[in-house]
Amino acid sequence: MSSIVKPTTSKNSGLLKRMWDAKILYLILLPGLIHLILFKLLPLFGLVIAFQDYSIFKGILDSKWIGIEHFSKFMSDPYFWKLVRNTLLLAFFNLLFVFPIPIIFALFVNEVRLSAVKRFVQTLSFFPYFISSAVIVSILYKVLSPQGGLVNQMLNLAGFESVFFMADPGWFRPLYVMLNVWQLFGYSAIIYMAAMTSIDPHLYEAADIDGANRFKKIINVTLPSISSTIVVMFILAIGQILTVDLDKILLMYNPSIYDTADVIQSYVYRQAFASDGFPNYSFGAAVGLMQSVIAFVLVMMANKVSKKYSESRLF
User: Fold this and answer.
1) In the predicted model, what is the mean pLDDT of residues 153-168?
2) Comparing C-alpha atoms, which of 78, 89, 135 is closest to residue 244?
3) 8 lies in a domain?
4) How many domains does the chain fold into?
């Protein structure tokens, strides 16, 4: 019997010793783990209100259960398809521009030979990520103002009339995507630049021997070497295809652009925190849960496709 117990004890002791040796790393991990539990995992239990006629006075335990009534109400709402259309279009354009531009930028930065210039460009591109959405949208309002804005001044000099960009529904999506590109391209490019540092230098030397120029080395060496990173990031982006930057949208919001600016998340916000009467938390939770389920299905589909056509996948 002792011969069976000893290996298990020894194995557990070895695991505890390795954990103790790496205690600093686990200590660094602890804040992130606490944040994950408190703000990501524990709130999941609150999703039960999506199936209730929730009242803040009665609480979760005493509120009336109504099943999928909120889901049916949302899907039967005539406004439903407009919200889905606006969300998908905004997400599509976001994916079309915000996803590839950091890759292209990282490829160009990787080709810069002067390390001082490379560091300066990286720092300059990374800086917008730390600017809050409120400041970015405020800058946008100033630049595009029909009265004294830089863009309209240039249009006036060219003989055109001033355009009220922020009140034009047709300009909302381009402006939203442009802001996201400017704010995120430097931050997102770090992942691809980090992947490029692991590329074997001998591959570039072999390409030089074959007479490849810089462009051919990018196409035949750099891109294939970081393809697994690109696939994983694309799958993650697919999972967020129904997620938009609500802060930017609410800051850019005004009644004249509701036709293109109103998306599922802004609708959830209005329902959950309605200004007239009591907030409808249950309905907002139901719409949010439906959105998450759709995003999960999209991730599973994208992951399945990646397994079929590539070795890279999330799981």
Assistant:
1) 88
2) 89
3) no
4) 1
